[in-house]
Amino acid sequence: MNENGKVDEAIAEAIIVDAEHAKLEIRFLPEGLHGIPFTKDDYWVLKIDPDYQTALVGEPNKEYLW
After folding, report:
1. Any idea where the Lipocalin/cytosolic fatty-acid binding domain is (predicted)?
2. pTM of the predicted model, to two decimals?
3. Which DSSP letter does residue 59 get?
4. What angle do CA 48, 52, 23 make, to 5 degrees?
């Protein structure tokens, strides 16, 4: 939730780039704009709880963690 109490939402497409190490490439643009450079980010699935209800996701630069 943001500071106004509203839910923030992002719609993206995830592509598995390294299944063994749980590395994803995420695109936040509509499919027709996927060819634009620098429109994707790398994310790593760091931990998933046994019931697959919660995941810890980060990115290689260690700047963001969700």
Report:
1. 4-66
2. 0.62
3. -
4. 45
| Side chain identity, residue 13 | E
Side chain identity at residue 63, one-letter code: E
Count CB neighbours of 26 within 10 A.
Answer: 16
24 neighbors 44 (Cβ within 8 angstroms): yes
The pLDDT profile of the chain, 66 residues, written as one tens digit per residue, is 678 888 877 778 888 999 998 999 888 777 676 666 667 788 999 999 999 999 999 998 888 898
Task: Report how far residue 13's alpha carbon sits from residue 38's, in angstroms, rounded to the nearest whole number.
Answer: 15
Q: Which two tokens stand for residue 4?
A: 């106004």
Cα(38)–Cα(27) distance, rounded to whole angstroms?
A: 10
pLDDT score for 31: 67
CA-to-CA distance for 43 and 56, rounded, in angstroms?
A: 10
